[in-house]
Design brief:
The chain has about 200 residues and is of the alpha+beta class. Helices cover about 20% and strands about 40% of the residues. It has one domain. A hairpin with a 2-residue loop joins β1 and β2.
């Protein structure tokens, strides 16, 4: 699939697509802010690089795409897409990354025709002696039909980051609260999508 690699891309490497200088045009009919875990996420950046692919990124006020604590992303790939094929390709990518980065870890869950992927990514300092960024991602993949009858694959994703000295505390919190984000992403009511024509 021509644009599968775009949809598969995690937030790493630590350059968000949103760092480009683009206006945040709502391509998916989700213009109002997204309320997630008692916080309001505003649309800060969008992209429509191909006819089939749309990406929208959301942050709470005061955060930036260059250094955020939590990012909400909605990606849509138009077409009759095989959900399991996409997730299998993402897992293969993570396995390959894990060969050179032992911090990378992942787990997949399937329920009601949807698949969730929970994974860790990291980036070391330039000297390679310690971590500079640790990122946890929870991806929720589902096939949808938009309000105009278009079939598509939707990815609702939440990425959390810790930087430098905060990484140890972040990891400790993951051990006790790991299921909280999984349950929040899995239980989130994704608004109806209307793909721009």
């Amino acid at each position: 699939m021509k644009y599968l690699s775009i949809l598969l891309a995690g937030v790493l490497p630590f350059f968000s697509l949103g760092q480009a200088n683009n206006a945040a045009k709502d391509y998916l009919g989700l213009a109002k802010p997204i309320s997630f875990e008692n916080a309001i996420y505003h649309l800060v950046w969008t992209s429509h690089p191909t006819e089939q692919y749309y990406k929208q990124e959301y942050l709470v006020k005061g955060e930036s795409l260059e250094k955020f604590r939590k990012l909400v992303t909605v990606d849509v790939l138009v077409g009759d897409i095989d959900l399991k094929e996409v997730v299998s390709a993402k897992i293969a990518e993570l396995k390959q990354l894990k060969e050179s980065n032992p911090m990378i870890n992942y787990q997949a869950f399937e329920k009601n025709g949807e698949i969730m992927l929970d994974f860790l990514l990291s980036q070391a300092t330039p000297d390679g002696k310690q971590l500079s960024i640790l990122e946890r991602n929870v991806y929720r993949y589902k096939n949808i039909t938009d309000q105009n009858g278009k079939k598509a694959l939707l990815l609702f994703a939440v990425s959390e980051r810790a930087y430098g000295a905060d990484i140890d505390r972040f990891l400790a919190g993951l051990k006790s609260k790991r299921m909280d984000l999984l349950n929040a992403v899995g239980g989130f009511k994704i608004p109806p999508v209307t793909i721009a024509r």
